[in-house]
User: What shape does this take?
Amino acid sequence: MDLNFTAEDRQFREEAREWLNANVFKERRPHGGQEMREYDLAWQRTQYDAGWAGVSWPKEYGGMGLGLTRQLIWYEEYARAHAPDNHLCFVGLNHGGPTIIARGSEEQKKEHLRPILSGEKIWCQGFSEPNAGSDLASLKTRAVIDGDELVITGSKIWTSHGHLSDMQELLVRTDPGAPKHKGISWVIFDMNTPGLDLRPIDIMSAPNHTHFVQCFYDEARVPLKNVVGDVNDGWSVAMSTLGFERGTAQIKDQIRYAFLVEDMIKKARDRYGAEFVSTDEFGARLAQLRADMAAARAMTYMAVSRAERDVSPAMASLMRAMVGQVQQRVRRLAFDIIGADGLENPEDDDWVYFYLRSYATTIAAGTLQIQRNIIGERVLGLPRGR
Amino acid sequence: MDLLPSSDQQQIVDTIQDFLRNEAPVDRLREFGAIGNSDAKLWPKLAELGFFGLSLPEEMGGIGLSAAEEMLVFQQFGYHLISPAIFGTILGARVAAFSGDAHLRDALLSGEARVGVANSRGAAGGTDAFHLFEADEAELILLCDDDEAALYPRSAFTHIERVNSTDAVLVLERARLGDSVEPRVRVSKETENIHARALMLMGAYALGIGQGARDMAVEYAQVREQFGKPIGSFQAIKHICADMAIRSEAALCQASFAALVMDDASPDTEFHAVASKIVACESAIKNAADCVQVHGAFGFTAEANVHHYLKRSHVADRLFGGLREQRRRILTFPTPA
Assistant: This one.
């Protein structure tokens, strides 16, 4: 056990801090629409142009080729500098990209990785279907092989920012006769493909901005070379993607939330007085969250330590489940601290927006209940069953 | 940076785990009349294996390892519900060492001397009212607060009165600290912050209790059958067990972090020690409560070991200041780095 970073690590931290302090976007991030896309891409491009994108990605595809420890340091400094959360880039940076790095062909890596880092392409996810949510492997969107193409017909749902995206990581059924986990393929899908139709779905935190889309594919044609891994082996490819989403991709959030709790303590003291906060129930909740956020951050250090030793990806569900619930408690308390003002929802108030938004944290990347199943069966070894 | 034990550290964990599994199975607490510190008979053996001076510098008669190794060992003490008198002896040796009393230090490191633990009764008794844990046969009693850590002779306490302990295997007494009595040895916080170490180690101990309760519940859920299946196959039970695992993971990570910042003499040492105690004691109490529920009516009996975990988790919470006090304290620290 060791909390010390190497001299090179510390040097990296200094340089990252300096660059971030000088270059972080100060303008508030728009909550939706093309302005949000432009904002996120511009911030990503700024990082890439300065050589800071893809800390742990291979050098030959535009990354920095450094390990997860440096990635952790970068995210810590990123959060410390209050750098914007360019959430539109999340799928590319944390699912699509890492999956192609792990399982893609050389040609796929050459074509798709750099545009993610350089802020040219936004990726979205096409996993869930109207009748395949927690039971993801029951998905039915069909892909028929026709020569050197796949012909896709069906529907995907809960695709965040699909209407603002260029590319999609798409799970399709290529063998309906095989057992349900054995007939799925993981496909790189271009959102400009003819035969794709989108229906917008607004969410409760920002009713004026489309967040989700439902995707309808009507004989949409994709080159067969866009299948990542083997045809019909998409389930194992998808599982590596979810491992990233539940594990190291969450690092940045933990640090960000730890700072948020500190802001909340300050805000509560300003609003109600330091003495009151220490005796009121707000004080008890803030104190508990301060301790829980310390633990959440320690969990990110543990996640990096485990990843370096190749420990079972099911362990990532422990952190995901814990952090999802703590984040909700943080946002709920922030909402409570502003008191009656929480009933006003002006466009520029992040505390109300993010409170409502926090209901997603125990649903996205597998519901809390699915995480508990994974922990029960794959971490604790309890028998399978529903 | 690495939060996982190194292979050397894992070897220490394996050694103490094997020792306690053989010498101190939790079933020992079920023996009729096992009230009083029967674990004291383990002390000379633990001392001989070097566990009492693990984190003391070699020039102070210790092994010269770090707070991280000590944290890992206290986690195992909690897992096996070792008497909390272990805090008196190990922290007591530290008090003696840093106060410069080599003779007393060596007596404590040998495991021959017994040290009880005094804990403030707080609002229930006033500033001079204490509970003494496992102190009936102890020559010395550890008293450790925010300002200093000290070893008092038992004779420094007055009005000693034996009371029934909620954790029935422990000997509990009420007592008052006499007027103008001096401790045998004392160490100020500025010399060595033993109070922060006590909180950190209590976090590790409580982590172990919570993990013990988790494992007991999981084991039972795998073998107990209802409706023709092991109850652990039902989500209603499986999810309770998963929540126990989540709490233990959070407590483990924070206990590890707290030990490491202490080794680095970081200004955030106290913050992380308090955070560890808060998170770990909650994990211990909630896991023990869930363990009762998973066991059903059996869990409510004195025949199952479950109640030992529940009762010990509350002892861990109250020692060195309970949840309310620790929550008040954690808000007093500046923003950690």
About this structure: Chain A has twelve helices and eight strands. The first helix of chain A runs from residue 7 to 23. The mean pLDDT of chain A is 92. Residues 123-232 of chain A form a domain with the Butyryl-CoA Dehydrogenase, subunit A; domain 2 fold (CATH 2.40.110.10).
